[in-house]
User: Fold this.
Amino acid sequence: MSKVVKKVGRAVKKVVKGVGKVIKKVASSKVFKAVAIAAAVYFTGGAALGAMGAASAGTSIAAGAAQGLGAAWGGITGAASALIGGPGTVLGSLKAGLTAAGQVGATTGGLGAAFSQGVTAAQALSSGVSAAATGAAGTAGAAGTGAWTVGGSLTAPTVNAPMMTTGAGATGAGAGATGGGLAKGMIGSALVQGGMNLYGGYATDKAEAAAEEQRQKNQAFRAEILGVPTYATRREFMGLPER
Amino acid sequence: MAIVAEQMGVSTAPPQQQQTMGSVPSQGMPADEPETEEEMLEDEQEADVDDPNYQAALQFVADALYRNDAAQSIAVRLRKTPDKVRALADAAYEIMSVAVEKLEGRLPEELYVLFAATVLEELGDIAEAAGIDYSPADLAEVFKQIVLRFLGELGVNTSELETAMGQITPETFNKLSEQAGDIPDDR
Assistant:
């Protein structure tokens, strides 16, 4: 693998960064959806779940667990800020379509708590997504909630704070100790000005078109290989009776 | 899973002689080295699903599964195993490893997770077709095992991450999946 992965740290960062591509993919299969949810939980502590329609997902993930994940990833990747500080990164790639909806404070403990600083009212976003985010201004590292409505179908996502913990003010267990965690750079840079709408980047026409195109390509090569690209064919291929 | 590797057209040499998806000899924790200008430029150029190497990897997997009968072997194995989660993780990891090695590092690393998810999707469909049910929690566990194995083979100490991942209950994934299911796929 040394010839496959040249620099471990960089490779891990890029692999983690690639999670955004999974989250943004329009999933038509329940298996893929489950895997994408797992990726969102394990890599972003659940923060990206809103983008997938698991609206109140954050509430299901204990703040402490998400915090631990943030700290663990921070420890593994080292320069954690590179992970989601720029375009195309895990959460950075999901921020398109944002308008300023609140001040993400650099000295607060987490994204949810950060929302509480400036986000108190709904504000229309340029993409047609209305946002209303509120956060519980709690202790550093405490989970906050962000609620926004996306096109009427995606409502009230709750975002767990810990993965968004900043290095400066974070005192959340683990994350603070390692100086940041995944979201250090994100909180400290561009997103500070914008608030966050996880759905924005996800719902772009481009992403949907790309996902559809990919689905058709996958279907096409299955068709080429299997003869017929249907579910039943797999059963038939394996000599199983039709259900 | 050696049989799968053989069906994928690769050697089944002893582990110490094999390269696996994440194996890097004598490397410890990821080095926090500054990136070169070339690397930073490379980072800005995002690979996407149209990347020819990614497409080649998908094609390779499809060939292995359906042309070389790996799908059938996997289905049989999944039906027999007492640990269906581990078996699915092993199968997916092996397929991904072989594909990555076949491409000799040309598969963009930022597409690894998408590739893993896509392979898992395919294997999940095969399992389902074979009458083996995987819950969202099972699939999350499979994904977790793949991630930890990949990092472990890179030489990363995954104990803290494994502990943190273990704090998320299986039921969480089942609930999340239900919630996501309420959203139309064709948004």
Summary: DSSP finds eleven helices and three strands in chain A. Residues 12-203 of chain A form one domain.
